[in-house]
Amino acid sequence: MPDVPLKTAAASSVACRHCATPFRPGEREEEFCCSGCRYVFHLLHERGLEDFYRFGETKSPIGSQVFSERDFAWLPALQATATSGTLTLQVQGISCAGCVWLLEAVFLEQPGAIAAEVNSSSGTIRLRWDTGCDLVRYARDVQRFGYLLGPPGTKAEPTLRPLVRKLGLCGALALNAMLFALPRYLGMNPGEQFAALFDAIALGIATASIAIGAPYFFRRAVAALRRRELHIDLPISLGLAVAYTGSVVAWLAGDASFAYFDFVSIFTFLMLLGRWLQERAVETNRNRLLGLKLTPDDVRVLRNGLLQEAPATSLVTGERFTIRRNQVVPVRSRLIDGPGDFAMNWINGEPAPRTVSRGGIVAAGARSLDSGDLECIALEDWSTSQLASLLALTDSGPWKNHGLQTLIRIYLAIVLVVAATGFLVWGVCGGDWLGAFQVLISILVVSCPCAIGVALPLLDDVAAARLQPFGVYLREASLWQRLPRVRQILFDKTGTLTLENLVPTDPSAIDSLPERPILLRLTFDSLHPIACCLREHLLAAGVKPAPDDGQRVVEYPGLGLEWNGWRLGRATWATVDSDACGTVLAHDGEVVASFSFREEIRPDATGQVQEFSRRGFGIALLSGDEPTRVTRMATTLGLPASSAFGGLTPQEKARLVRERWSACSLMLGDGANDSLAFDAALCRGTPASDSGLLEHKADFYLLGRSLRGLGALFDMSTAHTRAGRAVTAFALAYNACAVGASLAGWMNPLLAAVIMPLSSLVSISLVFLFLKSNQ
């Protein structure tokens, strides 16, 4: 990856009034980074919840999810079976203490609500209520503020909780170890009163530290060796084992000159601290998301003459099943009802919905936009469906950093050879075998990777935290080692380079319309992309829907919407005017307004793509959309037509990545059709955080509308690499000096106890120095 930083900021950038994300003001938006942030900002003030902003932490961009309908059909059954009116749910979108306060405050507004307890570290909320509380109403309410509730039990088990317990206990033991070692360092002789007791207590504390903290590193080191890999936990484990064993031997021999009991306790605590720092950021970002979703929702299947709920994974060829509104079709099917509108963007990248007539074929992965239920016949088994292959989670194991393994191999060889040589020289040439043993132990103890074990995990943590204001959230710490290898950036088109929803070509035609409340009433519950576009625009502008007069909005697939004499849809259907075309709003057949829509490229996408190209990265567009549209997008971005690959199936995408760019590519995508290409790429990211699939496969995810965060990620990667090299160089210099002092016979427990934390402090200072220079 080029070392020259990308241009990710400009003097004209301002902070969003809601989330504080930096963005460039445009013609349509000067105060907020997206329409979602504008909508939530005004909603908070309208509801009297502006205390949310009293909590000063960085907040996340909202995006368009507040305008989309979410299926909470699973929630009533859970509420009905909840014992004692208590239920724990997943929650997505928690980013600060203000989110915790808001989730609790909104719940207490619900009738019958008693209390809400939010656990931001695990991404869960525990609700308690009395009779009359409607949890579906609460779920829809908090979605308007940018939070999604999900069923319990679908997240991976937290890995930090056991580590935090070990860290707390070992921290207390380390403090006590220093306390009981202090008298010896201040001159207490071995024969003095309490000296033997203090040494015995120091042995007990070190033993407890080893018993509590060391197995964490021992198990991981052994697991890596079984995979024929070398891990940083191996030299840590070796240092702990040697320091403790040598100290016990010294204690039994009555020689305190190389009893490193306090070193053992402090080193164990510091290594656990470093590992907690490394895991904290990625686990927090993982817990911000709902759980992994590898199967579609249950469907109603006709079996034995009865409709019954059944897992989508149980479908077989020939079975009749019913899908609900906004539900994904699990298998390739034939539509019995009809016609019906289906969104195809998630499965093949087509931005426009497809109308399927009665008896037509519906592709697996299509999402129903129909207002009611649709009945289908399965044309394939779930096990052989394309969607099943796209949702399959491949386990390739942890990424192997071959460079790090080579470094550890060389490091261990040098340390062991130097330690053995020093032992033999002191024993054979000097005749002092006890001194030789002290030299051996001292070299193996002081050469432990103390500075690296704390500073590099801290580097990962700080770098990840500094990306969050750009809307970038890391899920895999190994991304920092892979990003420097990236030479090719691969973009999906629909929903990745473009925004999730269409945008009006002429927003003023909507803003000047007196019938905006009627227009919002027509589109309020529709899932059609054009309706979603209009609803987002109107809600962000603070429009309220026209009062419901009891008449239901009727949706006609492929045509439009009708309510109380008003029609919104195709001109040939909505109006009697033969000259009208496109999408129109009409009343009693007379045209009131005409609208046109287009895909909009994400803010900063063109600038970022051109800057990546200028810095030497290869750029390619891989899309299932029509080749002509993909080529036009490449031209808009300033790319040659040869970089645009359209009309690709998911399998063709993956094959292209494997054949050309597998070892050097970063893939950015948002749909199930990108899943196989994700598996083939070196690095992967997604701007979609609510599909339940790609965000759990991705190394990072982006929130908000802009792609500026992608440039910020590469900038931070450059700074991360430089800081890592500086820390490693210092660690090597420190080890050379410490080993030299050990060979000379100068090393002792007091000196080791002093230089170890000092080296860690210097390494930490280097981390902040190099990351600060990147700002």
Structure description:
This protein is 46% helix and 14% strand. The chain is of the alpha+beta class. Strand 20 and strand 21 form a beta hairpin. The longest helix has 36 residues, at 708-743.
Rg, rounded, reads 31 Å
The biggest sheet, with number of strands, parallel, antiparallel or mixed sense and barrel status, is:
7 strands, mixed
| Backbone structural class | alpha+beta
- Overall geometry comes to elongated
Give the strand order of the largest sheet, numbering strands 1, 2, ... along the chain: 16-29-28-27-17-25-26
Helix count, per DSSP? 26
How far is it from the N-terminal to the C-terminal residue, by CA? Answer: 19 Å
| Unreliable stretches | 1-11
Question: In oligomeric terms, what are we looking at?
Answer: single chain
Strand content: 5-15%
